[in-house]
């Protein structure tokens, strides 16, 4: 037992973040993931920082649980190898601009000629259809096109972009979910093999459901509100007396009642200015100032003890150093040390979600380019002489 997806075979011919992240998620759950890279070039992730020596930490972290082979998909000989790979795979994940595979001669019909049950997951900036389908798409512009950037930041400052590849990671999650839904339909429900179409901008637009409803019903354009939440008050980031930042949120009337008790301000519960969330939202600035003053009078430890005593949702604002020192992260196996050929070892985020009987695992960090080419081709029936011939021709 090596994870709930140990019988699933995935072919990852995508590059950079979203598609490869989807494949990595499936790999975390035990799927056998073969990563295809261009000979001599590799996935562009290998060129992204930070670096230690010549090693990209981005690649080492992001390409976990994969076997790497090199293969020129634009050559006929490379395509013949690909079709043999496809014949033995359940899912293919690609994120080229729509129409690219067809131009190379790798249409869906040709792929399905090798495996009629192949599930193909397409990841692109704007989807496979629509007037923008052919445009170049990356995750960061997608945050703008989705509407997310417009509401992120402070009202008196420019919009703020995420400091991580948020849209790519979200899209990868949707792509992995789509792949699994398609596998379920095919294997369990007896439905057809699907093409799964995942667009970068749509992955985060899906999360803006209330923003959409708000504009449709009320005609209100959601604007930037800094650390304040539009749905509940008080909520935000506050600084303790000893200079630490802490997040406190009261998303229900019950949690606000707990906060009022923790602050020795039960009077607010009967005060019509603060007794309901609607009234507190109308006085959001005033409410936040009350909380700012209270938090600023206590140390971080005093705040944690007080808020935990009354079960108020809160958290310190953690840095990476804080996370490495936190016992809860360790207890949940969320910091996993993995061996690496040049780094010795690298610590990676653990597997999400957890399974009680047959959990996923991290079996390897990002592999060397083409590390598994010979072994994978041998599995496909290629002889050593045939492999050498492919190498000599630059196909692998």
From TrEMBL:
Segments crossing the lipid bilayer: none
Keywords: Transferase
Keyword Transferase (UniProt): yes
SUPFAM superfamilies from the UniProt entry: CoA-transferase family III (CaiB/BaiF)
Region forming the signal peptide: none
Family annotation (InterPro entries): CoA-transferase_III_domain, CoA-Trfase_fam_III, CoA-Trfase_III_dom3_sf, CoA-Trfase_III_dom_1_sf
GO terms for MF: CoA-transferase activity
Protein's name according to its UniProt entry: Formyl-CoA transferase
Organism: Ornithinicoccus hortensis
């Amino acid at each position: 037992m090596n994870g709930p997806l140990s019988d699933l075979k995935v072919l990852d011919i995508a590059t950079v973040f979203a598609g490869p992240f989807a494949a990595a998620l499936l790999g975390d759950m035990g799927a056998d993931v073969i990563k295809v890279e261009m000979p001599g070039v590799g996935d562009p992730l290998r060129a992204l920082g930070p670096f230690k020596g010549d090693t990209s930490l981005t690649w080492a972290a992001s390409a976990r649980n994969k076997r790497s082979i090199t293969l020129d998909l634009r050559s006929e000989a490379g395509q013949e190898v690909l079709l043999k790979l496809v014949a033995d795979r359940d899912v293919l994940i690609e994120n080229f601009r729509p129409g690219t595979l067809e131009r190379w001669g790798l249409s869906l019909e040709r792929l399905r000629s090798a495996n009629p049950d192949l599930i193909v997951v397409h990841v692109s900036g704007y989807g496979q259809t629509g007037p923008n389908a052919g445009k170049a798409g990356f995750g960061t512009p997608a945050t703008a096109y989705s509407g997310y950037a417009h509401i992120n930041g402070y009202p008196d400052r420019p919009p703020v972009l995420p400091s991580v590849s948020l849209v790519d990671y979200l899209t990868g999650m949707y792509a992995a979910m789509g792949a699994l839904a398609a596998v379920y339909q095919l294997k369990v429900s007896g439905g057809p093999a699907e093409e799964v179409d995942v667009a970068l901008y749509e992955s985060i637009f899906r999360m803006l459901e209330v923003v959409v409803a708000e504009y449709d019903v009320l005609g209100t354009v959601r604007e930037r509100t800094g650390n304040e939440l539009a749905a509940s008050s008080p909520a935000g980031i506050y600084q303790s007396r000893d200079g630490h930042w802490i997040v406190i949120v009261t998303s229900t009337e019950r949690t606000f009642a707990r906060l009022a008790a923790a602050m020795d301000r039960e009077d607010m519960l009967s005060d019509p200015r603060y007794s309901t969330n609607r009234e507190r939202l109308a006085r959001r600035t005033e409410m936040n100032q009350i909380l700012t003053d209270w938090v600023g009078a206590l140390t971080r430890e005093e705040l944690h003890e007080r808020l935990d005593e009354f079960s108020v949702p809160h958290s310190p604002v953690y840095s990476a150093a804080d996370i490495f020192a936190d016992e809860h992260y360790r207890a949940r196996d969320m910091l996993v040390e993995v061996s690496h050929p040049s780094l010795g070892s690298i610590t990676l985020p653990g597997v999400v979600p957890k399974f009680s009987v047959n959990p996923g695992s991290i079996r390897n960090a990002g592999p060397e380019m083409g590390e598994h080419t010979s072994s994978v081709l041998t599995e496909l029936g290629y002889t050593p002489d045939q492999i050498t011939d492919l190498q000599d021709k630059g196909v692998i």
